[in-house]
C-alpha cells in the first residue's frame, strides 16, 4: 500500500482541526469546571440524559451513543451517583441490563449549567464564524459523521 501524504492545504486543514478540537475542548471543560463544578464527562452524560425520552438510557446504549466503553461509563456513573446526579436502575424490560436515570438534582444541575455552557460555546466558536462558515462547518461535520456511521454499521 502506498502512503497518500497530505498536501499543504490538506495538512493545514487536518492540523488546524486537531488544534481547534484540543483547544476548544479544553477551554469548554475549564469553563464548565469553573462555572458549574462539572467535568466535561459529567456534562456529556447529563445532557444526553436530559434530552432522552424519560430522561433515561440503557447503560449499553448510552455508552454506544457517547462512543465510550461500558466500563468507562460505569465508572463515570458511579461518581455521579455519589453526587446525586444520576441513579442506576435495573432495566424493566428484561431485568438483566442496567438503566441510568437523571435525578431531580441532576436535572437542576444540568439546567443551571447549560446557559453558561452555551454562552461559552458561543464565545469560543459560534460567534467567531459568519453564517457561511457555520453552514460549511455543519456540512463538513454531517458528511464526516455520515461516513463514520456508515462504516460502523
Could you explain how this protein is built, in words?
There is one protein chain. This protein is mostly helical and 153 residues long. The chain has one domain: Orthogonal Bundle (Arc Repressor Mutant, subunit A). The chain has helices spanning 8-36, 40-51, 59-66, 70-82, 104-124, 131-152; strands at 56-58, 86-90, 98-102. It has a three-stranded antiparallel β-sheet with strand order 1-3-2. The chain is built from six helices and three strands, in the order ααβααββαα. The longest helix has 29 residues, at 8-36.
Briefly summarize what is shown.
The chain has 153 residues and is mainly alpha-helical. It has six helices and three strands. It has one domain: Orthogonal Bundle (Arc Repressor Mutant, subunit A).
Report the CATH C-level class.
Mainly Alpha
User: Main sheet: which strands, in order across?
Assistant: 1-3-2
Order of helices and strands: HHEHHEEHH
Total beta strand runs: 3
Q: Would you identify the regions where 5 or more consecutive residues have pLDDT less than 50?
A: none
CATH-wise, what's the superfamily? Winged helix-like DNA-binding domain superfamily/Winged helix DNA-binding domain
Overall mean pLDDT stands at 95
Helix content bin: 55-70%
Whole-angstrom Rg? 18 Å
Level-2 CATH architecture: Orthogonal Bundle
List the helices and strands and how they pair.
Elements: H1 8-36, H2 40-51, E1 56-58, H3 59-66, H4 70-82, E2 86-90, E3 98-102, H5 104-124, H6 131-152
Antiparallel strand pairs: 1-3, 2-3
List keywords for this structure.
153 residues, mainly alpha, Arc Repressor Mutant, subunit A, globular
Amino acid at each position: 500500500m502506498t502512503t497518500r501524504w497530505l498536501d499543504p492545504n490538506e495538512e493545514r486543514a487536518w492540523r488546524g482541526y486537531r488544534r481547534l478540537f484540543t483547544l476548544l475542548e479544553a477551554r469548554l471543560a475549564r469553563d464548565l469546571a469553573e462555572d458549574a463544578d462539572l467535568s466535561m464527562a459529567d456534562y456529556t452524560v447529563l445532557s444526553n440524559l436530559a434530552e432522552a425520552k424519560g430522561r433515561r438510557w440503557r447503560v449499553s446504549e448510552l455508552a454506544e451513543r457517547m462512543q465510550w466503553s461500558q466500563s468507562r461509563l460505569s465508572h463515570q456513573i458511579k461518581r455521579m451517583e455519589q453526587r446525586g446526579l444520576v441513579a442506576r436502575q435495573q432495566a424493566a424490560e428484561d431485568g438483566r441490563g442496567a438503566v441510568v436515570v437523571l435525578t431531580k438534582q441532576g436535572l437542576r444541575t444540568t439546567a443551571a449549567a447549560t446557559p453558561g455552557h452555551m454562552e461559552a460555546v458561543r464565545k469560543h466558536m459560534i460567534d467567531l464564524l459568519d453564517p457561511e462558515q457555520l453552514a460549511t462547518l455543519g456540512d463538513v461535520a454531517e458528511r464526516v459523521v455520515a461516513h463514520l456511521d456508515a462504516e460502523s454499521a
